[in-house]
Amino acid sequence: MPQPSASPDDGNASVALAPTDIPGQPETALAASSAPAAIPLVDPTGPSVPVALPLADATADPAVLPSAPPLVDPAALQDLGAQLDSPAVAKGFARDYTKMWDQRYQTLASALENGDLARSMDAVLSLKTSSEMVGGLRLAQLAGELETALRAGDMGHALVLLRDVAERGDETVDELQFSYVLWDS
């Protein structure tokens, strides 16, 4: 049998909290349990069945919490092909992107290593934009982080991100060649 709400529903609340104590157990036992913390909720529009929403675990790895975008989203190239009214042109753009990866990376790395902020910004914006166009979402996101570091004048952090850019770039090129560029139109 569902437990009644801890707060009476006066018609103004969209969600009411359910009791957090368990009969026969002190509240400290609930807090010390090994189960993940949750907020018990009752949906007033439906049956009075408590629903538990997990709270963020402070000990969890922060890199795992946010959902990372896909390495490559093929819908981006499909959209580009539709916008250009030519899937062949979109496929050619993806081929050119993969062929230019090494040069694009070397330009960015050289500019960063030489402390050339203007050239670094040009290179990272080019990388971010072209990566978005081919659907290289993780690389585009990383390029955005590098852009933020450059705008903040943090060349040290930008150089640290450069290693990740190299790895994501190689993975993106491999994925494009495997899943899209080699497909026949």
Fold and architecture overview:
- By secondary structure, the protein is mainly alpha-helical.
- The chain is built from 6 helices and 3 strands.
- Strands 1-2-3 form a 3-stranded antiparallel beta sheet, with no helix packed on it.
- α4 (117-134) packs antiparallel against α5 (137-151) and α5 (137-151) runs antiparallel to α6.
- It starts with 15 loop residues before the first strand and ends with a helix.
- Residues 1-60 have low confidence and may be disordered.
Give a nutshell description of this structure.
The protein is mainly alpha-helical and 185 residues long. The chain is 56% helix and 6% strand.
Fraction of residues in helix? 55-70%
Approximate strand percentage: 5-15%
Individual helix count:
6
Order of helices and strands: EHEEHHHHH
- Biggest sheet: strands, sense, closure? 3 strands, antiparallel
- Which sequence of strands runs across the widest sheet? 1-2-3
| Cα-based radius of gyration, to the nearest Å | 25 Å
Summing up helix and strand content along with how strands pair, one would put the structural category as mainly alpha
Distance between the termini: 59 Å
Mean pLDDT: 74
Q: Give the beta-strand count.
A: 3
Shape: elongated
Stretches with pLDDT under 50, minimum 5 residues:
1-60
